[in-house]
Amino acid sequence: MSDPATIDEVCAVAMAEAFRGDGEILCNPIGTTPIIGGRLARATFEPDMVMTDAVSVLAANVLPVGDDEAPRLVEAWMPYRDVFDIVWSGRRHVVMGASQIDAHGNQNLAAIGDWRQPKAQLLGLRGAPGNLVNHATSYWVPNHSTRSFVPTVDVVSGPGYDRVAGLSRFIRDNHGIRRVVSNLGVFDFANDEQRMQLVSVHPGVTVDEVVDATGFELVVPDEVAESRQPTDEELRLIREVIDPHGLRKAEFR
Amino acid sequence: MVAELESGMTIGIGGWGSRRKPMSLVRAIARSDLTDLTIVAYGGPDIGLLCATGKARKVVYGFVSLDSIPLEPHFRVARQTAAVDFAEFDEGAFYLGLLAAAHRVPFYPTRAGLGSDMLTMNPDLRTVASPYPDADGHHEELVAIPAFDIDVSLVHMNRADAGGNGQFLGPDLYFDDLFAKAAKRTFMSCEKVVPTGHLLDEGTFHTLKIPRLFVDGVVEAPRGAHFTECPPDYGRDEAFQREYAATAKDPEAWAAFRECYVDAPGHEAYLAAVDAREGSSS
């Protein structure tokens, strides 16, 4: 038996689960825990997904996270420009971070305060506006609090369900926030109001703790599951193959 | 080359983040008397440096990053002090602004920006209805990304010939070909000028993506992208980049950095200063 899973490993598996059922698309997680989750999903239950090496090729082998020297089994050249052809084709599922996220799934990566002269300039809109109106998106928020899960985001980088409700059929059909994974639990929007709801709490976390750490009214079903534990094989892949140096721990300090 | 530029111009800069940026040309602008420039780039230290030296009046970008340092710290200061005007685009929408300019059409349509604050932050952006009905008979509303009106583009290549045929030998051309095609004039620095007959010595013809048709001048600048990466010739000088980044929080350190490196009189003097710095491994 492996040592019991730690919170970072539970989160990596919760992130991997975001990709279940995706099939042959570009799995494009951004950030350490999402990348581990994506590579884990492909190494186990979603073998048809393609993934970049985080530089400029699609690599068919399972790469250790953060290792620029690991041999790549190259299956295609993927310079930065070509990623947009995939974005616009719809055959992509991205995982982005969110400095702020609200009940409708609006994401802010851009700025805190007034965008004209922000109190804090963040990464910017980046590719979020185009991603959200073209293909599946999930979010990773490693610091769940009332500062990150907020009633209203300061800037909308990636539009949520309320923002796309009045847009074209194409956009409504292609927009979808599959899940939000935080250090406390897993969330989705699978209800009639398309508002964020609690799907599961991570081991050792209570529903009340999640509610208290959330700055808006979270939809809480009567039954809330516990996020699933990694299997022994998943733990082996995470610890020995995908993240042998434990880079995943850094997001939980 | 920089003598060909004028205050008030819009300058496109190739490369991407902290990758293969024409830094010797950027420093030449920083040392010049030029003012009120508009800079268009997938930004890295080019935008940071031209903000910190007061050369940029406006920056137009898809992002501004140093890669290993996710947000360019001098750009952060410029935004938080409202020192520059700015136009921030979705990364893919920015590509379409370059493409429209290269193709000499007024705009390209995209869905990127609908529903997000990209339209709020760019009040001059307009939408356009598709002239073609969709399956439901609706004429879909799309964002019209205007062609970027670029006076001069600057790019850095691994190799070039004297006529301006440019060669990239690394894993990604980024948008350098589009910058060259989008601008009225383009100047190219390169690691090494080689005879045309030697252009295929180090790469296949697939690496010859910028023909001299689109290039108005070439200058040899070995390590001309330093401290950004320029593979396979060299990687990023991370230690130097960290030193540069740290100066954004310390006016005295910035003044010293500027005097030593930015104001170094010419590219050779810059390289000498880089090589002389404490702890330099080169």
CATH-defined architecture of chain A? 3-Layer(aba) Sandwich
- Proportion in β-strands of chain A: 15-25%
Q: In percent, how helical is the residue content of chain A?
A: 25-40%
Strand tally of chain A is 13
Using the 3D structure, state the CATH architecture of the largest domain in chain B.
3-Layer(aba) Sandwich
Largest sheet of chain A, in brief, is: 7 strands, mixed
What does this molecule look like?
The complex is a heterodimer of chains A (253) and B (282). With 253 residues, chain A is of the alpha/beta class. Chain A has one domain: 3-Layer(aba) Sandwich (Glutaconate Coenzyme A-transferase), CATH 3.40.1080.10. In chain A, 26% of the residues lie in helices and 19% in strands. In chain A, helix 1 (7-17) packs across helix 2 and helix 2 (32-43) crosses helix 8 (232-242). The radius of gyration of chain A is 18 Å and the shape is globular. In chain A, 50% of the residues are buried. Chain B is of the alpha/beta class. Chain B has helices at residues 23-31, 45-52, 73-80, 91-103, 118-121, 176-182, 238-246, 251-262, 267-276, and strands at residues 10-13, 37-43, 56-64, 85-88, 107-110, 126-129, 141-146, 150-160, 166-167, 183-193, 217-220. In chain B, strand 8 and strand 9 form a beta hairpin. In chain B, helix 1 (23-31) runs parallel beside helix 2 (45-52), helix 2 packs across helix 3 and helix 4 (91-103) crosses helix 6 (176-182). The A-B interface holds A 55-57, 77, 79-81, 84, 87-88, 110-111, 115-130, 132-134, 155-159, 163-164, 167-171 and B 16, 61-65, 70-71, 75-76, 79-82, 88-93, 95, 110-118, 120-121, 134, 136, 138, 140-141, 171-175.
